[in-house]
């Protein structure tokens, strides 16, 4: 007969060996490792009517004493609150409050599960020890062995000669082995002494001392080292140190050794307050041994400040020591292609129907380019009242900008006013919207021959369209037909004596068919007398509104010659634009197609086109194919893929080729291995530098251990950028 005992002692939590996870986990997408079973309940059910603080004991045999040592044997069960102890034999000593267990001892709490050879624990002091313990941490999905587990106080646990892994405990692919592992639950921090990271049984990294968080709370300490390599700089090893200065600001220091260049120090300071947030980055290479530029640096400052409910200040400032900084030290194709760096300070505020902003802006120009004008300052005011039924909509904008800083172009100031009135007449199936715009601009220039210029230009437009729809496939889908006509008229005004501060020709695309002005900015207002005709069709799912297919075709027809041009450019010719065709849709649930074509109806040829096909299925097989060309300008093809070879291995690659010049622009080949507790990625990258002659080769290696983070370079970021759909 089993013996049961429950006592209403207000003990502290029984065996409070609350080992939190050695590293906080916020990772998703991992395979599930087998969870070790560390406790057998023996079918014992704690009575529901007991208070949580009560100690409940059940055993096959027992000798209970009011004072002294009580002994239990045969499938002993002891529980209190959320803690449960199982053992072959156990004893309980009163009034000392000491419990001992031996023979298949197992213990479960909110934070951990343990199985050991022997237990001794003081319930009154919440101190004790377990010998030869196997433990599992459910929150971290990690487990390990410890020769001795010591509960020094309710908030401090020490594990001696211990291992930790998130792999299956019987055959771990990796493990962290430490002489001493100390868990401070109050501070949510752990420390390890004489720790060795092993891959299988091979030591790969030794750390004499390091700290780590027990939860997702940020803690100071070294981050995993990173490693990368390329031909320009050689091997780069970095050892970041994260300094948690306060809950709302931190600092990361990253010393790096670059084999061909020397020592580099990077700093990143981040902050977040009730009204401010931002970051400050600074990277210094004091003596570049591979360059004549000597000391080299990069900085990036960003800040956003809220001054009230509707007011804010934004700061962005970026700069480098020399023009070749990104070419020599950039770690991506995008970085090496940077031509200027912006510095701007902007104030914004708004009301219910108005807005105002003030801007200070200039640029650092790289690689000998022409510097854009600085705006010191630019003031913008806008009036955009809420639309009111079928009444007239009136908008207005005003801008004052002082353009300065150019040594090759005219400097000066510009004052611009614009007002627009429109009214839309619409039903469920049709709409007509006439608009009238008036723009007046004043210039004061630093040109002794032409100091003052003014210009006034009116514009009128008429936009109209129909919305037709029908059910297809027995109502499973809805198809729309949307014809549209857009007419705009802007008279010619001579503008050749006006400098170009911020205007450029817009690239022709489908949306540009319905724009009043063919130029960006305010220095050129294009003359126009043209009509756009277009038609679109869509196929949608009425259940969720998902667009399955969309196709559009449109063209502009010019009734007058276009005379307004940019400097050194000839007027545009022809009475019609290219015919623009766009189509996008799902070929099937796994494959999506996007295509654009520009058809020259006079030459009966395609002047430009682009097509992209994206495939991704439930097995995470990805294939992206692209082709783009513009007549007599460029022609390129691209291919990227990610293909699982088996449940663990995946092959990844990306390729982009300049077909016109018969050369590869970039090639990336990589592989990924994934188990339930670790991943590794390897990638080789060859790409063309901005000089269009030199090529660079780089190798990226990354090891990601579940629960411990990444070791190596940003291989994942590289592959995500190059392979659409890769995760």
UniProtKB/TrEMBL annotation:
Keywords for this protein: Cell outer membrane, Membrane, Signal
Main subcellular location: membrane
Coiled coil (residue ranges): none
Residues making up the signal peptide according to the UniProt record: 1-26
The keyword Ribosomal protein is assigned to this record: no
Start and end residues of each Organic solvent tolerance-like N-terminal domain: 56-188
Record domain LPS-assembly protein LptD central: where: 193-273
Cellular localization per UniProt: Cell outer membrane
UniProt cross-references to Pfam families, sorted A to Z: LptD, LptD_2, LptD_N
Residues covered by the LptD C-terminal domain: 295-645
Assembly description: Component of the lipopolysaccharide transport and assembly complex. Interacts with LptE and LptA.
Homology family: Belongs to the LptD family.
Function: Together with LptE, is involved in the assembly of lipopolysaccharide (LPS) at the surface of the outer membrane.
PANTHER family named among the record's database cross-references: LPS-ASSEMBLY PROTEIN, LPS-ASSEMBLY PROTEIN LPTD
Protein name per its UniProtKB record: LPS-assembly protein LptD
Natural source organism: Thiothrix subterranea
Gene of this entry: lptD
């Amino acid at each position: 007969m089993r013996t049961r005992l429950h006592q209403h002692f207000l003990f502290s939590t029984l065996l409070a060996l609350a080992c939190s996870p050695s590293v906080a986990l916020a990772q998703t997408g991992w395979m599930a490792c087998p969870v070790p079973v560390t406790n057998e309940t023996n079918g014992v059910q704690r009575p529901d009517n007991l208070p949580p603080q009560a100690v409940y004991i059940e055993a096959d045999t027992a000798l209970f004493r009011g004072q002294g040592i009580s002994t239990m044997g045969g499938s002993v069960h002891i529980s209190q609150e959320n803690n449960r102890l199982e053992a072959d034999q156990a004893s309980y000593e009163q009034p000392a409050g000491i419990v001992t267990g031996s023979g298949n001892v197992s213990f479960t709490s909110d934070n951990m599960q343990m199985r050991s050879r022997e237990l001794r624990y003081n319930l009154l002091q919440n101190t004790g020890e377990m010998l030869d313990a196997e433990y599992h941490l459910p929150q971290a999905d990690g487990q390990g062995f410890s020769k001795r587990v010591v509960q020094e106080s309710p908030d401090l646990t020490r594990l001696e000669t211990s291992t930790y892994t998130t792999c299956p405990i019987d055959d771990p692919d990796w493990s962290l082995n430490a002489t001493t592992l100390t868990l401070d639950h109050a501070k949510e921090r752990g420390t390890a002494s004489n720790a060795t990271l092993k891959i299988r049984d091979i030591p790969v990294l030794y750390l004499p001392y390091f700290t780590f968080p027990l939860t997702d709370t940020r803690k100071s300490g070294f981050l995993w080292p990173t490693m990368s390599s390329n031909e320009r700089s050689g091997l780069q090893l970095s050892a970041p140190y994260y300094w948690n200065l306060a809950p709302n600001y931190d600092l990361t220091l990253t010393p790096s050794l670059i084999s061909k260049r020397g020592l580099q120090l990077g700093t990143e300071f981040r902050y977040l307050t009730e009204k401010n947030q931002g970051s400050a980055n600074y990277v210094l290479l004091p003596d570049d041994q591979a360059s004549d530029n000597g000391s080299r640096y990069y900085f990036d400052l960003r800040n956003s400040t809220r001054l009230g409910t509707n007011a804010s200040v934004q700061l962005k400032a970026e700069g480098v020591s020399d023009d070749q900084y990104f070419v020599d030290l950039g770690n991506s194709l995008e970085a090496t292609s940077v031509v200027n760096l912006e510095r701007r300070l902007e104030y914004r505020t708004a009301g219910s129907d108005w807005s105002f902003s003030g801007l200070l802006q200039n640029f650092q120009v790289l690689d000998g380019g022409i510097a854009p004008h600085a705006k010191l300052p630019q003031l913008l005011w806008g009036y955009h009242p809420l639309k009111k039924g079928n009444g007239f909509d009136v908008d207005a904008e005003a801008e004052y900008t002082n353009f300065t800083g150019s040594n090759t172009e005219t400097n000066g100031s510009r004052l611009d006013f614009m007002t627009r009135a429109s009214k839309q007449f619409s039903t469920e199936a049709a709409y007509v919207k006439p608009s009238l715009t008036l723009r007046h601009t004043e210039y004061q220039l630093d040109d002794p021959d032409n100091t003052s210029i003014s210009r006034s230009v009116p514009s009128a437009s008429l936009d109209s369209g129909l919305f037709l729809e029908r059910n297809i496939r027995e109502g499973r889908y809805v198809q729309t037909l949307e014809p549209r006509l857009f007419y705009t008229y802007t008279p010619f005004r001579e503008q050749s004596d006006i400098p170009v501060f911020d205007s450029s020709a817009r690239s022709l695309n489908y949306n540009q068919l319905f724009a009043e002005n063919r130029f960006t900015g305010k220095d050129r207002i294009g003359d126009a007398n043209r009509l756009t005709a277009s038609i679109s069709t869509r196929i949608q799912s009425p259940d969720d509104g998902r667009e399955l297919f969309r196709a559009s075709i449109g063209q502009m027809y010019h009734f007058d010659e276009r005379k307004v041009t940019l400097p050194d450019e000839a007027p545009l010719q022809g009475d019609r634009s290219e015919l623009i065709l766009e189509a996008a849709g799902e070929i099937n649930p796994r494959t999506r197609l996007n295509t654009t074509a520009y058809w020259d109806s006079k030459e009966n040829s395609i002047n430009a086109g682009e097509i992209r096909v994206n495939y991704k299925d439930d097995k995470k097989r990805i294939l992206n194919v692209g082709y783009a060309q513009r007549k007599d300008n460029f022609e390129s093809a691209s291919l990227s893929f990610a293909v699982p070879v088996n449940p663990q291995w995946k092959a990844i690659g990306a390729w982009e080729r300049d077909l016109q010049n018969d050369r590869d622009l970039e090639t990336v080949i990589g592989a990924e291995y994934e188990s339930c507790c670790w991943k590794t990625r390897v990638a080789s990258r060859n790409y063309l530098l901005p000089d269009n002659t030199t090529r660079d080769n780089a190798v990226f290696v990354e090891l990601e251990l579940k629960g411990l983070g990444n070791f190596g370079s940003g291989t994942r970021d590289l592959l995500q950028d190059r392979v659409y759909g890769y995760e």
